[in-house]
Amino acid sequence: IKIDPAHTFAIDGVGKDFLASSIIILCRAGHFGNGSIPHRFQNPYSNFIAFCNARKKNTSISEFDYSTFKLPQNSLNKFPRGLGKGHDAAVLGAWLAEEMQQLSMDRMDGVFRDIVAVVKCSVCASDSFWRTIYGQGIWIPRAVAQQLVVDGWKLSDGYSTLASLCSKAGFYGYQVRPKVHMLAHIVLDIQHQLMIPECEWILNPAINMTWSDEDFIGR
Q1: What is the DSSP letter of 11?
Q2: d(CA 12, CA 205)
Q3: What local confidence, expressed as pLDDT, does residue 211 receive?
Q4: What integer pLDDT is reported at residue 219 of this predicted model?
């Protein structure tokens, strides 16, 4: 049995938890401005749509609000469980990685400073990790796979660190569920192949993705 990276991260996966939690933390930290939480949700959505329009990307997400993040109305006292459809994870990840380049730690409240620093590192590593996987063919050159492992562990370790930091701060975010463990195994499988000195090409974990099956049944 092989792990499907698509379902592990994008299709009801931890990628949706990761991105939703990161957006909410950045909203709470004041990166997208001040005001009520519903008001703070509006600015990142405007930035996201501008990103999609500029790069001709499609999204199923019509707004950022409590229901979009699968939260109770007017409450952040529950773990966000993602947003949009599976394909939205890649678009959101690319936008958020670009957004991180404009992040100013000087404006961060002390309680959020450490959390947001890990968010930035993890989001950028995630974008690089998935861009590489989707951008390569069935076989990945050894040097590229080595960087893939570095990015993959930054994402996996970052998620766990964020879950711990949020728990200590009393925030709901980065829910730990079995797919977090499965994500680590995707990275570990690449690392195991790299441990064989003769391996110049590494099998791309994308071969186990089931996007075509999802399209076939119309979901």
Answers
A1: S
A2: 18
A3: 80
A4: 52
- Which residue type, as a one-letter code, is found at position 112? F
pLDDT at residue 4, as a whole number? 94
Distance CA 180, CA 160 (A): 8
Name the token pair of 28.
């709470």
3-state SS assignment for residue 62: coil
Which tens digits make up the pLDDT trace of 98-140? 999 888 777 676 789 899 999 999 999 999 999 999 999 999 9
- State how far the alpha carbon of 132 is from the alpha carbons of 24, 136, 146, in Å: 26, 6, 11
In this prediction the pTM is 0.92
Residue ranges for the chain with pLDDT beneath 50 = none
| 127 in Cβ contact with 97 (< 8 Å) | yes
- In terms of Cα–Cα distance, which of 135, 113, 123, 101 is closest to 20? 123
Tokens of 195: 């441990």
The size of the chain, in residues, is 219
